[in-house]
Amino acid sequence: MTQAPGWPGLGDEALLIAVANTAHADQDEFADTDTLNAWWTGLDAPVATHRGSPASDGSIAMLRTMRGLIRGLALRNNGVEPAPAEFAGLEALPLRLDLRGTPTLLADPAGDLAHDICAAGAAALLRATARAGWSRFKACRGDDCRWVFLDRSRNCSRRWCDMTDCGNRAKIAAYRDRHRSAA
Length: 183
Prior knowledge:
Blueprint: H1 12-20, E1 23-24, E2 27-28, H2 33-42, H3 57-77, H4 88-91, E3 95-98, E4 104-107, H5 113-129, E5 137-139, E6 148-150, H6 163-182
Antiparallel strand pairs: 1-2, 3-4, 5-6
Helix pairs in contact: 1-3, 1-5, 3-5
């Protein structure tokens, strides 16, 4: 796993997973500035020391769009064609190429937390999709889950984030459907 430049402690895939898994059930870590800041400071990495300006509502919406893009690509890697989504908000993100050290993308101007995370996510996405292991970056097939994970199985066949929860529910539902149609 390659470390995301400017994001010490978080590799590209770890950053993408952290962003993608910010909404589950009724909890949304990108609901507003306060929840975004709480999520940011709760990260288990030394990057949780952002000193820029607080995120605006528009930049938080852009961050939610980035989350949707990451989840959609991870679903596609797991054989699920996601519903068409609108990613036009990401096109408005002003980026600049930073060639000092490892080439990366930065928000221009830097400082807005949500824009900075989006820029780092875009750069991490470009690097991660170019690597041979990209097909292992998946989202759970559970309709009520969609948790993003790295498939570490030998043959890259994992479909659910957790076999005891999502996988078990899917297998029970398939079993009931088979027996319902047989009866």
